[in-house]
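Why do we care about 3D structure at all? Because function follows from shape, and shape follows, mostly, from sequence. That is the central idea of this module. The next example makes it concrete: a single protein chain, its amino acid sequence, and then its structure expressed as tokens.
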Amino acid sequence: MINKSFLTISEAADVLGVHPNTLRAWEKRKKLIPERDEVTGYRQYSKKQIRDYLLRGSCPKIEMRWGYDYSVKARREELSLARKSIEALVSSESTTSSVSLDQELFSLLEETIRLGVRVRFIRDLSSEEMKRRAQRMSRMGVKTRDRKVSGVTFSVRDGKMVRIEVPSDNPDQRLNLVIRDRKMTRSFLLLFEKLWQE
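And the structure:
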């Protein structure tokens, strides 16, 4: 931050990573109220005010859930709530161990695509099972790139939410982090595009 007691609206906007008009809107909504310069009447923000806001309100909204059941719930939610696109980087494991659950997820996927949602996957197609799944999804309109993938899985929904799944040999220890933060989501979308183009 600039070494002075107060920041102008442009300086505060730069620190917060928003447009000055956003700060004006926040003032109207009483989300972040500036002081006024006694001489000029211009808005000014104290460093403490900006620091407190950063600590209070602009951190990513993160949910942390354990277990395979939550992983399934999260996949259902992604498919049923998507409006624009789903981008996903997946591991080489089969989607689920349940035939009926697989059928449900494929049906949800088909409906999602019918609604106009773009779906792309990067996944390891070295196993026959994963090849069969990719062929089935391709017939629905899903584009799939073959790449060796292991470890962490992530998916991005509508450019607004990213889910990071950390697999485990013990299904109860499977970790899901759901992050609702546009900057974080943008980073994962950029990573996805880079992997897709390589």
